[in-house]
Model the fold of this input.
Amino acid sequence: MKYVIGVDVGGTFTDLVCLDEQGQSLVTKTPSTPSDPSIAIVNGLTKLAGLLGMDEKSLLKDTTRITHGTTVSTNTVLTWTGAKVGMLCTKGFRDTLGIRFGIRETPYDLSVPQPETLCPRYLRMPVQERIDAEGDPVITLNEDDVLRACGEFREQGVEAVAVCFLWSFRNPIHEARAAEICREQLPEVYVCASHEIQPEIREYWRMSTTVINAYVGPKLASYLKHLSQSLEAWGFTGQLLITQSNAGVIFPEVAMEQAVRTVLSGPACAPAAAAYVSKSLDLEDVITVDMGGTSFDVCLIKEGKPVTALESAVGGVYHMKLPLVDVRTIGAGGGSIGWLDQMKVLHMGPQSAGADPGPACYDRGGSEPTCTDADLVLGYLDPDYYLGGEMPLRPDLARKAIQEMIADPLCMDVGDAAWSMRRVIDHHMVDGISIVSVQRGEDPRRYTLVVAGGAGAVHAASLARVIGIRRLLVPKTSSVFCALGGVIADVRHDFVKSITSKTANLTLSSLKNTFGEMRSTADEFLDREGVSTKDRYYLKSLDMRYKGQYHELEVPLPVPESASEEEIEEVMLSRLVESFHEMHENLYSYRDDAETEVLNLRMAACGVVPTPDLHEAPLVSRDAGALHKGTRPAYFEEKGGYTDTPVYDGDQMEVGNVVNGPAIVELKTTTIVVPPDGSLEVTPYESFLIEFTQ
Amino acid sequence: MTEPYKIRLNTADFAVLTSAVFTIAREMGVNMERTARAPIYFSAHDFCTSILTTDAELVALAEYIPVLVGATPFAVRAVNEYFRDDINPGDVFLVNDPYTMDAGNQMADWCVVYPVFHEKEHILWIANKAHQQDTGGGVPGGYNPNAIDVYAEGLRIPPLRIRRKGRERRSVVNLLMTNVRIPDVQYSDLLSLIGAARVAEKRLDTLIRGYGEKTFRLFLEDLLAYGEFLMREEIAKIPDGKYHSEIHGAVEGSPSVVCDLTVAEDRLIVDFSKSGPMSPEFINSPVANTHSAVYQAILQSLGRNLQVRCGGCYRPVEIRTQPGTITHATFPATHGNCTNFVAKQIIEAVWTALAQVAPRDTPGGWGSIPYWVFSGVDPRRNEGYGSPDFQATASGAGALWGVDGWSTNGPVICSGTLYYPEIEVCEGLYPMFWHRWEWAEDSAGPGQWRGGFGVHNEWEAIADSQPVYVNYAADPYDYDPSPAIEGGHRPPNNHKMLCMADGRQVDNHEIRSSKFFALGKGDRVVDFVQGGCGVGNPLDRDETAVQKDVRDGLVSIQSAKEHYGVVIDPETLAVNVEETASLRAERNRVSRS
Done:
């Protein structure tokens, strides 16, 4: 039997999922080891091998592929532990990085300090050179400036250099030469140039993306080298693949050069897993939600594909421009703290009790009432079976916190106060779902909610009700979704070419040529990775706007994925303009007569990675009566408050089991609340499907 | 202090509805930003979106350009009054004129006013305002420094119906578009304003249907009372008294901006009646603009930690003005640049008065912006263009006790909501070549917390056949940035210069008097844009913070010594601890005696 394994290294846990050729999945979790993450990976592999009844060496010998998602790059930025970065910039434009196009996130609160840059000003070295808007070199590159800067970098102990000149995406000659000099002069230093990382118009975005790349590159590179060696030492001869923010995978060598592409890879893979799991039930349009201790991630999947965005900001501050899965994060989680302001208006968050001290019911010294405390008081959580009983909860402390901080000041009953907390936090999450659906012109009521995260299934049914969603899916693998998302991901490389042209002036031949050139570059990468020609496909799109707009919409070129550039036809161009009008109208409620223009051509070059279909288990029984564990009062508004609610052991449930609401289904990793008008069924793919009956 | 208002809605409904209406206002903002075609609109974020009660009180707004926060109620009041009984679902109104029923703050800011109905009952207004690329008048771009009256500044639009029951009144819109210079862009931007309102209408309808009209109306009263209470609490924290401030210009004959601030328990009276007379320059402030600027000043100081910002927060603030002064312009005074000047001076006059009683809650003054508006035809595409020189608006922010001011964050009326377009965007759109745009050494006001830095901005006209026309739009009187609080310093003055291709130089003074230039190929603009004011005595600034600025090339060794009393070794850039200690001790002795 051959295996593929997905590994996701998170801050607290390292998750592993193993798929065999028949699509049977096996999952495990092990505590992360932040000082050397590869230790936890090896521990996890040992655990997996144990579950399969074999030793880890034989498992690795039979493993053809390991995909690896890592938060190394994200955390490097968030914790300020990246490389000492030096930068070469066009003389006269030393502060583009620091100016951040002038934006202040909190215009009314002037007490927030200006963010520090990832490359301090004294290491931003001006170089005499200039390319103009037409791509002509109008001031020649002063190589002495570059040499002088290299000397300074050496003296200052710089570990990575980013070369970022104006208009380099139009003509990279100066950047390429400057980078070459740096590589000669500083052979130990990590060097990257903006035209290599993101050759796209708008220097701030290109520069910021490149500097993030330099900032995280050295650390990621040494980590991946170390990991490859460890795996090799354990007998692994298959292919290691690294997940990216676009939910595709790349080879480790490419990840080292283009480290920025891994920066937001963590949350990107979960939607891909959701799409994979839903596909087995013929669900193509789903919204995935993942609620953990501090945050709530939400993403829309349309026609089986997670929606992508073109830009993001790491930590809300460090901007990057790269195609990525558009996961929105809302600061709402189990740890969100409830509080009353001076007018006794209830707020949930943004402060979170996190894991330490955590909610009041954790009994770790937290005294403020949190969302988890409310869920416990409302009867949804079992104090003796939280995380499968590994963590006993104290309902008395939860009640006390809610009583003192919320219920008493509002002259309310504790249960009603907990329910109010719950409604407010649910609203924040509903808001998040609206942002990815309603605000994109999508009607969420058509969608199925796919639920992940420890707290997700406790809240999902109430969220669905507010929005009008009628179907929820809680996959058993949802606790290791990121690892699963990696294992099923295709190889993917994104390319962009800035052209800035009226759509009317685009000729078929220039379009064919440009896409053709991009494809050759893409093929170099895919060749290097040994992706066979028949497994390749190419997604082509254009960033379009009405002439003069600042923001674009990415419009897919209506051409088959396998088609070559030669098959692009005139009619596709005219259909393109109509697609743009339609997208614009759908999003913004109107279409314009104005001319359209094209800013960028984009190509995602992909290589299919063989993935087994999910294993379909046979129906066992409709009756879940044997798994009835007991009854406890839980709060349902429709029932007028607390009502006796049956509790089931979800881990033991079998395919076909049906449970009618109100009910609570408990698993080690999560708790599913089935509302009074809901009905839950275990699917042949080991997921729980909840449908509203009314 | 008045009794706290009791919120009547249940606590969860109130929290959810509050969050929901602000989400809708923000979504309107995002839609407008993403669809607009005029650079000043999408880049400067020179627009605002708002939802108002039928009595024109602000319910929710999106945080775009702060100086417009308080202007939309004026537009709505005018429309309300003018059309009274003839307001129907699907109607769209437009208004810009500051002198008809005080409707507008500035004529280039066109305001779309849109009624929202529920079950045939008028329940809310939406008012979206955006600065237009052109508004007719004597020169392109809406900034006419040589205008002699309001007619020369642009097309005056009194409350006007542009759609009736969903149908565009084509002849009316045509009249408008015939009187602006880039009608296709402007028409698109009008669609963008209306489109955002229509999306919001849909969302509001769903919300009101979900909660019922009765609950929703109660909510509106609760929300406004909530905002009012929060603001009253903040005002009540500061001592009662009367505080006076005056902002003077360095140029002879400058009208002063004078503020008398009274703190009376939980109320504020902000009185600008003693301001100087109206000016022949185009900076006179119509009353809507003055009110809006005052609200910004208060929300950024006393109100900066409020949970919500809505019309209720304005209730405890009474604003008094005297018609005929620079802070209450009357027909037909020119006013085209008032949202920059004197809005900045109005904001800073309020802060200067407030700094006397709440110095730790009041920001220092921001750098002024020596900008102008350029326009012309780009021969590369044979197309017209026009835009403010945003790169010249990148002044520094004032410090706030405990925090350095942000660099390149100006102007204050935007407070960091302005996106400076990238150089690559500018060079692609305009026939210009930039030589320099980066932070300027020693441009910030020193202080224990220093101001943010301004920039050097240099560009050159590059077209052979077509000139670049520039209209001077900077502060005509060199008003002082203010306040510099608790021993903080002001930044050095702005400077603007033209270096012509033939070697001739045009200095600041001549630029200010001529105001209008046509630049040919090779003519170069050279700006020094000042930073913000410092807060606190620079001799108390942390030595390592000074050393860091020196290492970064932002503070010179000389300035470190002169202003901060910190001695830096020019070779190693290390702090000479002993010399610094004795220099600072000596300076402190001198200043005390």
Remarks:
- Residues 203-233 of chain A form the longest helix (31 residues).
- Residues 377 and 580 of chain A are 50 Å apart (CA to CA).
